[in-house]
Amino acid sequence: NTTCYGVCDGSVLVQADGIPPFTYYWGSNNSGSFTSLDNSQDSLCVDTFYLSVEDWVGCEFTYDFFIEQPD
Q1: CA 27 to centroid of chain Cα atoms
Q2: What are the mean pLDDT values of the chain's consecutive 10-residue runs (71 residues total)?
């Protein structure tokens, strides 16, 4: 979650299951999507995020999470 209202300082760290290396496909309602080899992201704004993780043998795991802000 973010520390203050209107601040984009949310973060997430993912511990994926499967056989490394992993490819992370990040997406959100407002920020679009991108591919990364990193299992963490920071400077996130309030949004709903979608993550698909693919391991070395092609198994895919999906996660959804929401970054919230205080009132």
Answers
A1: 7
A2: 93 92 93 90 93 96 92 81
Return the DSSP state at 52: E
Instruction: Give the burial class of 65: count Cβ atoms within 10 A of its Cβ; 0-12 exposed, 13-18 middle, 19 or more buried.
Output: middle
pTM over 0.85, yes/no: no
Eight-class DSSP state of 16: -
Phi and psi angles of residue 53, each rounded to the nearest 5 degrees, phi first:
-115, 125
Beta strands in the chain (DSSP E): 10-13, 23-28, 32-36, 40-44, 47-54, 60-67
Q: Which of these, 13, 12, 10, lies nearest to 45 by C-alpha position?
A: 10
Q: Encoding tokens for residue 2?
A: 């973010």
